[in-house]
Amino acid sequence: MELFFQRLIDGLAQGSVYSLIALGLVIIYRGTGHLNFAQGEMALFCAYCVYQFGEWGIHVWIALPMGMAVGFMLGALAEVTLVRPISNKSPFAVFIVTLGLFTFLNWLDGAIWGNQNLPNSGVGSKQQSYPSLFPNARDDFWQPFGVTIRYDRAGILLLVLVITALLFLLFNKTKFGLAMRAVASNTESAKLAGIRTNTVLMVSWGLAAAIGAVGGVVIAGLNSNVNLGLMFTVFIYGSAAATLGGFDSPGGAVLGGLIIGVVENMSSGYAQKWIGQDMKLAVAFVVILAVLLIKPSGLFGTAKVERV
Amino acid sequence: MSLLRVSQLRAGYGPVNVLDGIELHVDDGEFVVMLGANGAGKTTTMRAISGLIPRYGVIEFEGHDIHKASADSIVRSGVAQVPQGRGTFPELSVEDNMLAGAYVRHGADGVHDDMHKWFEVFPRLAERRHQRAGSLSGGEQQMLAIARALMSRPKLLLCDEPSLGLAPLITQELFAVLERLNRDERLSVLLVEQNANLALHIANRVYLLETGRIVATGSAEELGADDAIRKAYLGF
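ok -> structure tokens follow
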């Protein structure tokens, strides 16, 4: 039983990262109907930046908001310069552009930071390991009822829940959130209501990338280093989480991420022999397939039905 | 001085010009109706005035040139459009639709009072204030689209075929509300219609649009008296 809770908590912490990536995808999808393939790589660029800030001696809790600011600017810039000029010409063009951004950012990371794991004493890193947001030494854990709860896992989960709550307030309680929902629902009517739709889209992309940045820093922290391939599987899990939760539902994205994290950990933990590390991705996708067969728009997605 | 003055207006989609020099004006407090067949350019005219598409020529509102202004600043200057089809936000609640309509207003001053006022004019919206707009009937959605436009406190309301797809009784009810708004609130209205009988009863003036040009203008009685026009456009 202790082991069950152990895996549940580890799974939730892992899933939190998928939730953050999925949240970013959902925010952009709701606003524009586009799937941003560069979401993971934007987060990776920010994760590298936070490593760099750490090298300069900046504390991680200050480096994180700085990394988020970098993400915000990166996302907003991508929307204004790359996506907006082509978005009303063809949705496929946007697909290709975000794929291009994906490759470009990965190349850029490699060009700036090289292709080895960082921090790395071989290239003169001052940091021992990637900065963790929460205490993660060997003995940083509680052990209530025999269940080991590591501080960093609990902290990450809490952080994701706080971010989700803040986003909920932004969407539902602020005027800007109302504008975001209006643009997502009907862009032309939003224009006719006097909403600056271009500003809303720019900020949405910025916000999505800033949230993704948190995901990048968290996963690099769990992994204790950052490298060029870090986000590949995380992005796949993140898009799976968004699909599972329903592509237009932020709450669904968070829950989808947590579910996938738990399923991943449970299946590789309990069925080590025949699932193990290699097949756990497949198990997560079988679960998603089962859900989508029953509810094609995802757990919380709205099927587009309209009375005329 | 006219509230809205449009002159030499050309606009279209891509390389194709749908409008070929539109001339029209709406005076303060007037109820103006624009008639025309399918494809004459009625909706394009509305979209050009609201700044949704690129356009050339003169568009003046209260004496200010707005032909290059962005859609949101045109709303801010006091022009609100109810677009063709359902100009609502289907995923948002009725109340949120109304609040989105008040987006251009600064602060929350009087927004809730206004919402209350339009709920009295459209009582069925009040009953459904927490429902998603997409779940309303066609007539209710059209009422919501109008209420949403009114929330910005416009001086000029552009209405693009509000009767489209509605039952005759609902259309009558809708036009009665528009007439009352024009009379009691001194709201100026430019209304586009394909099916004209009802609209002509409340119009001060009528424009006839044909392949991107205004081909006739006058009072409802004048146009109704012209046999050729009556047969072609009014169907009686």
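The interface with chain B takes residues 175, 178-179, 181-182, 184-186, 188-197, 302, 305-308 of chain A (CB under 8 Å).
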